[in-house]
Amino acid sequence: MNVRDRLDGGRAVVAARDADSTPDTAEIRRLAAAAGYDVVGEVTQRRREDRRYHLGEGKARELAGVVADAGADAVVVDGELTPGQYTDLLELLPPATTLVDRYRLVLEIFAAGAGSAAATTQVRLATLRYELPRVRRATEESLLNAATEKGSPVLDVERRIDDLERRLEELTDAAADRRERRREEGFDLVALAGYTNAGKSTLLRRLADDLTVESEAADHDDLPETAATADRLFETLETTTRRATVDGRRVLLADTVGLVADLPHELVRSFSATLEEIAAADAVLAVVDASAEAATLRRRLATAVDVLAGDATGPVIPVVNKADRLTERERAAATATVADALADADVDTREPVTVSAREGDGIGELRAALSTALPREAVELSVPNSGDARALVSWLHDRGDTEATYGAETVEIRFAGRPAVVAEARRRAADLRE
Questions:
Q1: Which of 31, 116, 236, 311 is 20 to 30 A distant from 110 in Cα terms?
Q2: Which of 130, 134, 132 is nearest to 104 (CA)?
Q3: What is the dihedral sign for C-alpha 146, 148, 149, 154?
């Protein structure tokens, strides 16, 4: 079941404002649809932000009329409303109208799609942080002071935030422990990051050992998440992890939650599981929808670069996806735009790779680029021929590229893999020689 099946927001009117140009409502309409709203109208305005209503007062009253005429249940504002703007704008709208800004809209989508304990905890925490200043405004200071000893809505929200922060820290520590164990087992960690609907999930299915683009595969016992794909925003709302083999190396691919523009930094940071996957990754595949219009592409790249520059520690490989929709000239232009956008980012950026995840074009080149980007060290070992030597070879086979030549007295081993595994191999070989 996808997110759209689980949400029914009713009929909505979209409201958008931009200080410099006529607002483009395409993305906010798609976000509203992803949250289950049926968009029945829109009101746009080109002007600076009004401190009271976000829109100008006249346009805000016009919005109320459009809502009434359309029989809408909700207003979706493409922007973040302050607590005061939310209260004042809501008073102008017809009774029982739901008012949702972009921030809250994304929270609704994430809340419906969150399944794991970490994702659910993060959504609840982000929601409470969003609600806290609004609760403060709704609670008169005199009543707050009088109720301090007995409790108040503000104190209750603050206590719940503290509890969720502790819970999330525990879950985060557990996830870090799992990543460390898998590294010790010889797995490389690769994160797929990028703007929502860029094709990350399709690329994951193309690269994974146990999934195909054409059909669903059975769940893996160790990594039970599936990897849904569809042409809709936020199809992936969990950090989905699958196994892959790249040039003989065992890799864990993490398909992270899609990024979206114009969200407060606090909301982006609140989904720490996605950011931690990016930060912990040995390499990041920054997936880009190359078929987007040039202005849209640059805007989405700016969002991705902001996150990658703050969190990526491993090499970043730009993946220019959906190339099957473009001409050769359009592919070259999109690739140049991607390279330019990442050139000034404070990350180790590699050459862009042009692919079509759906058709499979360019996947070989991407695997080669990823193999080169992953940390790798080689070693030659000589150990006495014994049962322990054969056990060492078996252990190495599970953790990297291994060749073994058995002689009468010794076993000659060539191994290439993660530097930490190479160091452990040297230690074990030394023990056998002693």
A1: 311
A2: 130
A3: positive
Report how far residue 424's alpha carbon sits from residue 411's, in angstroms, rounded to the nearest whole number: 17
**CA 124/CA 108 separation, integer angstroms:** 10
Q: Compute the distance between CA of residue 98 and CA of residue 95 in angstroms, rounded to an integer.
A: 9
The pLDDT-based confidence of 7 (bands split at 50, 70, 90) is: low
Amino acid at 17: R
Q: Which domain holds residue 81?
A: 3-109
387 and 361 belong to one structural domain: no
Query: 256 with 227: CB under 8 angstroms?
Result: no
Cα dihedral value 350, 230, 6, 109, nearest 10:
30
Q: What is the pLDDT of residue 94?
A: 96
What mean pLDDT is reported for the chain?
83
- What is the Cβ-side half-sphere exposure of residue 291, based on CA atoms within 13 angstroms? 12
Nearest Cα to Cα of residue 323 among 203, 227, 191, 242: 203
What is the dihedral angle through the alpha carbons of 130, 133, 139, 143, rounded to the nearest 10 degrees?
120
Inter-residue contact 260 to 271 (CB < 8 Å): no
- Residue 289's φ and ψ, nearest 5 degrees, are -80, 100
Q: DSSP secondary structure string, 104-167?
A: HHHHHHHHHH--SHHHHHHHHHHHHHHHHHHHHHHS-HHHHHHHTTT--HHHHHHHHHHHHHHH
List Cα–Cα distances, 385 to 9, 176, 394, 409, in angstroms.
Answer: 69, 37, 13, 5
Q: Which amino acid is at 314?
A: G
Q: Which residues pair with 99 in a beta bridge?
A: 75
- Whose CA is closest to 86, among 130, 120, 36? 130
Question: Which CATH number covers residue 408?
Answer: 3.30.1370
In a domain, 262, yes or no: yes
pTM of the predicted structure, to 2 decimals: 0.72
Same domain, 322 and 422: no
Burial class (CB in 10 A: 0-12, 13-18, 19+), 225: middle
- CB distance 63 to 43 below 8 Å: yes
Sorted by sequence, the CB contacts under 8 Å of residue 26 that are 6+ apart come out as none
> pLDDT tens-digit profile of 228-267?
444 444 544 456 788 998 887 888 998 877 777 766 655 6
More confident residue, 29 or 181: 29
Torsion angle in degrees (nearest 10) through CA of 345, 350, 354, 358:
-90
Tokens of 339: 């390279």
Q: What angle do CA 140, 141, 142 make, to 5 degrees?
A: 95
